[in-house]
Design goal:
Elements (H helix, E strand, L loop, with lengths): L16 H4 L3 H4 L1 H21 L16 H7 L3 H14 L2 H14 L17 H38 L4 E6 L2 E7 H21 L3 E2 L9 H6 L5 H11 L3 E2 L10 H29 L3 E3 L18 H23 L10 H6 L2 H21 E3 L1 H9 L6 H10 L5 H9 L6 H9 L5 H8 L10 H10 L3
Parallel strand pairs: 3-4
Antiparallel strand pairs: 1-2, 5-6
Helix pairs in contact: 3-6, 3-7, 5-6, 7-8, 7-14, 8-11, 8-20, 11-12, 12-14, 16-17
Subunit structure: Homotetramer. Residues from neighboring subunits contribute catalytic and substrate-binding residues to each active site.
Family: Belongs to the lyase 1 family. Adenylosuccinate lyase subfamily.
EC number: 4.3.2.2
Length: 460
């Protein structure tokens, strides 16, 4: 059976392939080869740039740019060629090294120095840098832009609904009102914090040989400061240098990065569930499309499927990332191979997040506020005003204010007249009675609306 989006085992490359296609340029087997080939070439160029210091007879420095053509022209046939070599070597990096040597030998002026390809390297020197570059590209080119879109969509929502009063529900029960804008703003602020954190997380890599001590490098060139060269090389690739490792870079930064993504995802799950609930309460309508169907038998249904889809995929993503957070920083002694197959699934974990981000953006764009329903719910619960009344009673020293309001409100249907009658009998200044009677469920929102102005004006 030919592999297509219909025959793929994973929905990542099947049902959801349209929204994950960009990740193929980063996490596919082909792309992994390309990243590693790039690292091998850059290291070879670094060594050649030191030819005078290393006493290498190489005089074609101006020709080094030709090596870039190997990576620029890398195609699927080249990747297939590497896979064929790997069948013999049973080692993917050695197969890549042999492929690169073959390509370099086609350039006659590199023949005398071809043995300096993969010089002093263990496989992990190449792999860890490739993964670092892959994760950097995924973060900067895909994850952060989508987070920005989600945060921007929430900012737009909170401004649109800044003055829409909302009956709060603590423990699922009527509680002190807020505004829809302020409730969205809470998520906006939380997500924005994670956005800032993710941008600052250092992407680390190492280039220091089989056990992190430059043993082979120093065996060949004992008077060279390979520690400094390692730093120069790694940082020249736009990533951060980890100076102290075993054979492998310990992956702590991956755990840090995924911890941040997991927390953002958890906040987004919280948002999805709240919006799902508001749709259920009819606080939001969803924009209709005539051709869409909500149920195969119930014609009236308009389900919040985008938020449900997002929640489900976020759960899958977090499950994989949490395993990686717990597993990847652990390696037996100087190296074991248990991280290898886990690292090959970095793209899988990220893909489920990407699917969910697209889903939530679709869902948010369909939402239409139902102000009438929200106001109706507020006006059904005048008992929530027992909070400001008993608080003002405390201010004026009236004893047992809480207990008195509990007696007339708890478990009872309360309307405006009952509340106003109670206020009129209070032994407080007349202007305070008037102020309390001017409070209603819709305008008892504290500084909810002003809070949004503070967020908007916060340039940090």
């Amino acid at each position: 059976m030919k592999l297509t989006s219909l025959t793929a085992i994973s929905p990542i490359d099947g049902r959801y392939s349209d929204v994950t296609v960009l990740l193929r340029n980063i996490f596919s087997e082909f792309s992994f080869f390309k990243y590693r080939l790039y690292v091998e070439i850059q290291w070879f160029k670094k060594i050649m740039s030191m030819s005078q210091t290393l006493k290498i007879n190489f005089f074609e420095h101006k020709k080094l740019f030709l090596l870039d053509e190997i990576i620029n022209n890398f195609n699927e046939n080249d990747a297939i060629c590497i896979k064929k070599i790997e069948k013999k070597t049973n080692h993917d990096i050695k197969a890549l090294e042999y492929f690169l040597k073959k390509q370099v030998l086609k350039l006659d002026f590199f023949e005398s120095v071809s043995e300096f390809i993969h010089f002093g390297c263990t496989s992990e020197d190449i792999n860890n840098i490739a993964y670092a570059l892959m994760l950097k590209d995924a973060r900067d080119q895909i994850i952060l832009p989508l987070w920005y879109d989600i945060i921007h969509a929430l900012k737009k929502m909170m401004i649109q609904h800044q003055y829409v009063s909302l009956l709060s529900l603590t423990h699922g029960q009527p509680a002190t009102p807020s505004t829809m804008g302020k409730e969205i703003a809470n998520f906006y602020y939380r997500m924005k914090r994670q956005y800032k954190k993710l941008k600052k997380i250092e992407i680390l890599a190492k280039m220091n040989g089989t056990t992190g001590n430059y043993n082979a490098h120093l065996a060949a060139y004992p008077n060279i400061n390979w520690h400094t060269i390692s730093k120069e090389f790694v940082t020249s690739l736009g990533i951060n240098w980890n100076p102290y490792t075993t054979q492998i870079e310990p992956h702590d930064y991956i755990a840090e990065l995924f911890s941040c993504v997991c927390l953002f995802n958890t906040i987004l799950i919280n948002f999805n569930r709240d919006i799902w609930g508001y749709i259920s309460l009819d606080y939001f309508h969803q924009k209709l499309k005539d051709c869409e169907i909500g149920s195969s038998i119930m014609p009236h249904k308009v389900n919040p499927i985008d938020f449900e889809n997002s929640e489900g995929n976020l759960g899958l993503s977090n499950a994989l990332m949490n395993h990686m957070i717990m597993k990847l920083p652990i390696s037996r002694w100087q190296r074991d191979l248990s991280d290898s197959t886990v690292l090959r699934n970095l793209g899988v974990a990220i893909s489920y997040s990407i699917i969910s981000y697209h889903s939530v953006l679709l869902g948010v764009n369909k939402l239409r506020i139902n102000k009438d329903r929200i106001l109706e719910m507020l006006n059904q619960h005048w008992s929530i005003l027992s909070e400001p009344i008993q608080t003002v009673m405390r201010r004026y020293g009236i004893k047992n204010g809480y207990e008195k309001l509990k007696e007339i409100t708890r478990g009872k249907k309360i309307d405006k007249s009952i509340i106003h009658d109670f206020i009129s009998q209070l032994n407080i200044p007349e202007n305070e009675k008037i102020r309390l009677q001017n409070i209603n469920p819709e305008n008892y929102i504290g500084n909810a609306s002003q809070t949004i102005n503070e967020m908007i004006n916060d340039i940090n």
